[in-house]
Write a structure and sequence with these properties.
This protein is an alpha+beta fold and 418 residues long. The chain contains twelve helices and 22 strands. The protein has a six-stranded mixed sheet with strand order 12-13-14-17-18-22, sandwiched between helices. Strand 5 and strand 6 form a beta hairpin.
């Protein structure tokens, strides 16, 4: 009798769990469908009768016997759009990507995933990491006592996860509260494991906010490398200071043999800054970097030449973490024949794209505009393909070489002086 009662209670619990799971999946379906209906740049998303799509797919979600099956149905639905940057990300993976760390404190390390491993690509001068002897090329094994390899494998196994999101997830593991410490394990050049405790300090740069964007630290740097000016900044934000610094760097380089603009790791920001900066490099009026199409408006990225234009060779450096305005700037100058692009394909995220958590815990990525470059190609889903593909490698970094910068310098030196 007791066994029968236990079985009955267990069956009732399973039924209740199944009903709750189904309800959350249905709510997630409705959230995805209504978001596309309300925020897609086309009134008829993908040219489809979106209400008919709803009526076709909702019964299938209601009948799904598992979360995986319901997720597959929702993914199939948004796949009907035939457009990039519409994806469902399983909760287990999204929870990793949505982790922004435990605080703004930084060790001064920048990193990328190379050949499936997190590798230090640069170390800020004077940072806690530099003081502890951390060097570019070191492989990051653990932070906070947690191995990074399972995180990387989990994220890379999902095709919806882009290099930009994966890199952010890795860098989040190198953050924490300002004034705190972080225990980390590295693999150095000799293959020896190095365990260090790193202090966490305020990020470099100046805190800047714009519109509804969260306040972020923005930095700008420039230096003369021989006869070539090298410019790098982390965001298209802090418009007055970054634009003034860019202008000063370009105008001080009238006798330079070339200009390198490093946008690797730059996720974008204010689109208008791309047009403003291009004005220092393009002398012909009425040139465009491209056009962005939203549901209720069209934005043409027209370049207005400045009084003092730089006429020499321009190299733009990009990677899989160059997104949004960085792609518009690099792709537009490439299409206009004004710059040669070096590095690896960009994030293919030129559009205003957002991530939201669904009621069932999954993540939903969606875009709200379409961008067509001056060359007639959409950047979303394709990105900017460099004129010369050059990849960072751990051996080169350990040897103190940035292969992308070296390639750009070599090209500039091969050009005739203006």
């Amino acid at each position: 009798m007791l066994a029968r009662r236990l079985i009955t209670v267990f069956a009732a619990a399973l039924s209740a769990f199944g009903q709750a799971r189904t309800q959350l999946d249905v709510e997630s379906f409705e959230k995805v469908w209504s978001t596309v209906r309300d925020k897609h740049w086309q009134v008829k998303p993908g040219g489809l009768d979106w209400q008919a799509i709803h009526d076709e797919y909702r019964p299938r979600v209601e009948k799904a016997s598992s979360r995986d099956e319901a997720r597959a149905v929702i993914q199939e639905m948004i796949g009907r759009l035939g457009q990039s940057h519409f994806a469902i990300i399983p909760a287990t993976v999204y929870s990793v990507l949505d982790d922004e760390g435990e605080g703004p404190g930084t060790t001064g390390i920048d990193a990328r995933v190379l050949d499936g491993h997190a590798v230090v690509t640069s170390v800020d001068p004077g940072s806690p990491a530099e003081k502890q002897g951390v060097r570019p090329g070191w492989q990051i094994e653990r932070t906070h006592g947690i191995d990074l390899e399972p995180l990387i494998k989990q994220a890379r196994s999902n095709p919806a996860i882009h290099e930009l999101q994966l890199t952010r997830a890795v860098l989040a593991r190198l953050s924490g509260p300002v004034g705190g410490t972080l225990d980390a394990a590295f693999l150095d050049a000799s293959g020896k494991t190095v365990n260090v405790t790193l202090g966490l300090t305020m990020p470099r740069g100046t805190l800047s906010a714009f519109g509804n964007l969260p306040a972020q630290y923005v930095w700008f740097e420039s230096q003369r490398m021989g006869q070539t000016e090298y410019i790098r900044f982390n965001l298209f934000l802090d418009l007055p200071r970054v634009m003034a610094s860019f202008q000063q760097a370009v105008e001080s380089c009238k006798t330079c043999d070339g200009l390198i603009i490093d946008l690797r790791g730059n996720p974008g920001g204010i689109g208008g800054m791309a047009m403003g900066m291009a004005g220092f490099l393009v002398d012909k009026p009425n040139q465009r970097l491209g056009t962005m199409y939203l549901r209720d408006s069209t934005l043409k990225f027209v370049v207005n030449p400045r009084a003092n234009v730089f006429f020499g060779p321009v190299a733009v450096l990009v990677d899989g973490c160059s997104a949004s305005t960085s792609e518009i700037f690099a792709g537009g100058l490439k299409d206009l024949g004004r710059a040669r692009v070096f590095g690896t394909r960009t994030a293919a995220a030129a559009l205003p794209s957002a991530f939201e958590r669904l009621p069932n815990g999954d993540g939903f990525q969606y875009a709200v505009a379409n961008y067509i470059s001056e060359g007639g190609q959409p950047l979303e889903g394709l990105g900017v393909t460099p004129d010369l593909v050059v990849e960072l490698t751990r051996p080169a970094l350990l040897a103190g070489h940035d292969a992308v910068v070296d390639a750009a310098m070599s090209w500039i030196r091969s050009q005739k002086k203006p």
